[in-house]
Amino acid sequence: MLAIKEGVLRMKPILFISHITEEKDLALAFKDLVEKHFLGMLEVFVSSDEHSIGMGQRWLDNITNALKSCVVEIILCSPQSLKRPWINFEAGAGWIRDIPVIPLCHSGMEPSQLPMPLNLLQAAKAGEVGGLKLVFPVLANALGAQSPSIDFTEFTEYVKMFERRYTFWDSCNQAFTQLNQFDAHIIPRLKQGGAVVLPLSETNFEYLFKVISFLTEYDLVLIEKTGSASMSSSTGFSYQCVISGLPGLQSVLSDSAFKFRS
């Protein structure tokens, strides 16, 4: 992108946002935030954005050129993205050029959990105002401008919504895997639309309640004690408990993303 200042044609400084395809929406939301508050002074390059790479342009060449000329690089860091070699390749390009490289953590990734050498960089969390307030002065400094005053509330709320949606299936499948490991009859019975009645010790009830609490939050599965404690010579004190499906369950069970490990 070109800009005109005092009659001189020059390239705008570039902010490069490194991300994986699954995190495109978050990358574009951060791009919008930057462009809104820097009033077009900074070009934001997002490789999955049609405005960053036009139709017919060579994808890899455009990424390479942006990495060579950007003044700041943001790395969207999640447990998923850091498994991809391309993210680490792009981060290394910024590191070698000795420009500011900022890991922006989200979806369960904490700055303290970043692997080497990313943990040597000053990182921030996308969903926390305090971290974002440290990022924007870096961008302003690259422009030789003052850092804008920003209300990050709308953006952080978007990040939380994105994280809940993005991380849902991992947590959902893990919960159902744990249910299946506890009792292989539970999921087939829930699929049939029935309830599962089990005598559970207090320890087992607490375990299943913790596993199912995530599913209850999403209106999928509920566990309840339905009677008082009884005594058995084999199990000791136990409670009659019912595990039942909630309205959202069947749509999740029929979704192609439902892939708990049996």
Overview of the molecule:
This protein is α/β, with parallel strands linked by helices and 262 residues long. It has two domains: 2-150, 3-Layer(aba) Sandwich (Rossmann fold), CATH 3.40.50.10140; 169-253. Helices cover 42% and strands 20% of the residues. The protein has helices at residues 24-38, 59-69, 85-97, 129-143, 153-182, 186-191, 202-217, 249-253; strands at residues 2-5, 8-11, 14-18, 43-46, 72-77, 101-105, 124-125, 196-200, 221-225, 230-232, 236-245. The protein has a five-stranded parallel sheet with strand order 4-3-5-6-7, sandwiched between helices. The longest helix is centred in the middle third of the chain and has 30 residues, at 153-182.
Spell out the blueprint of helices and strands:
Layout: E1 2-5, E2 8-11, E3 14-18, H1 24-38, E4 43-46, H2 59-69, E5 72-77, H3 85-97, E6 101-105, E7 124-125, H4 129-143, H5 153-182, H6 186-191, E8 196-200, H7 202-217, E9 221-225, E10 230-232, E11 236-245, H8 249-253
Parallel strand pairs: 3-4, 3-5, 5-6, 6-7
Antiparallel strand pairs: 1-2, 8-11, 9-11, 10-11
